[in-house]
Amino acid sequence: MKFDTKAIHAGYSPEKTTGSRAVPIYMTSAYAFESTEHARRLFALEESGNIYTRLQNPTTDVLEKRMAALDGGIGAMAASSGHGAITMTLLNLARSGDEIVSAKAIYGGAVNLMSKTLGQMGIKANYVDAHDPDAFRRATNDKTRAYFIETMGNPLGDIPDIEQIARVAHENGVPLIADNTEATPYLLRPIEHGADIVVYSSTKYLTGNGTVLGGVVVDSGKFVWKDNPRFPDYNEPDASYHGIVYANDCGDAAFITKLRTHILRDVGASISPFNSWVTLLGLETLGLRMQRHCENGIKVAEFLNSHSMIESVSYPGLAGSPYHGMYQKYFPKGQSPVFCFEIKGSREVAAKFCDSLEIISIVANLGDSRTIVSCPAATTHSQVPDEKLAEIGLKPGTIRISVGIEDAEDIINDIGKALDECSSL
Ligand SMILES: Cc1ncc(COP(=O)(O)O)c(C=O)c1O
Fold first, then answer.
1. Are 79 and 88 in contact (CB under 8 A)?
2. Which is the closest atom of ligand 1 to the Cα of 83?
3. Could you report the per-residue pLDDT of 93-127, keeping only the tens digit for each?
4. How many other C-beta atoms can be found within 10 angstroms of the C-beta atom of residue 224?
5. Within 10 Å of residue 296's Cβ, how many Cβ atoms?
6. Closest ligand 1 atom, CA of 364?
7. Helix, strand, or coil (residue 385)
8. What is the Å distance from ligand 1's center to 62 Cα?
9. Whole-structure pTM over 0.70, yes or no?
10. 215 lines ligand 1 (CB under 6 A)
11. Separation of CA 328 and ligand 1 centre (Å)
């Protein structure tokens, strides 16, 4: 099956009881066992089946299979949010005393998660410039358990050289985690470029209409866990789970099996079956929507780039961008239209611009069908100090836009009118 066919069909064929053509919502917390003996067999792993929705659910199972198919992975696991997916992924790799090497210009919430919460748990994050693959090598030591990048940085839309970073990761026996939220598997499949684990906030483009939260982790099945000294948890019996040795007993599926049976079981950041169902509805139109998002994105970027009141536009799809080469290498289908621009003038001018928009709203989200703007320094990156903001190329007046799928002319007119409102300041 090709991409758009998988987005509609992968992981589901009409179920036997009712023949329901659409994926049903199995809105249940738990499942009736046929007998005590049946329950015993399921708990003892002698037979597979549904036990409890914290661990598995038939609606969520379709979402997981569909995402694995779209990304070319061997399995996937959904989570309550993108942050749930990232947190559980990192906890599946690192424990107290371990370290992670992460790109520094990433979603501010992920920086908080790594520095504050995981930091308090004894897991240290080292931040590097994602555009210097060798920086990952220099930051690696015996305690390193993962590299983390965004395939398109939020908020700048910059593009790291995934293949080069994957090469450094594998030379060091470290798995590469790629957050592919902004690109989506329609525009880029990180596993094809060497990523081992792909994470998503499905809250964004995968669902695509700004309604439900969710996250997904996709496992490539390619990383070699067996006898890797960095990962004793994969090579020693897990006493909390029938003495399973993940790297031996689960083969290629070691990571994704441990993620569910150990981490999801204990952390419990599971997705609601309803949210899985809404995400599945969104996935059906992912290809169509992304085409339109990309078409609108370049039109808006070009408009801004040629406007006399605009200082700069950070959009690798534009020929002048320092990341245009990476864009041509990794994004032949187009660029997801989340990017930053800066209006000439002060922080007040940027605020006036946002407040003058009529169709476009000020929202702390991206990947919605509606065009939205935000000021990262005041919202998503508000916990990041000014000097750190500058390090990742953000200024207090930088505006992030996520171009939606409305008529491009209406989006551009709205922006043009709001810029006119600022011209007197
Ligand atoms: C790139 C990226 N990854 C992860 C997240 C976290 O996702 P969620 O808000 O679904 O927890 C976000 C949220 O904005 C994001 O932009």
1. yes
2. 11
3. 999 999 999 999 999 899 999 999 999 999 999 99
4. 14
5. 21
6. 14
7. coil
8. 22
9. yes
10. yes
11. 25
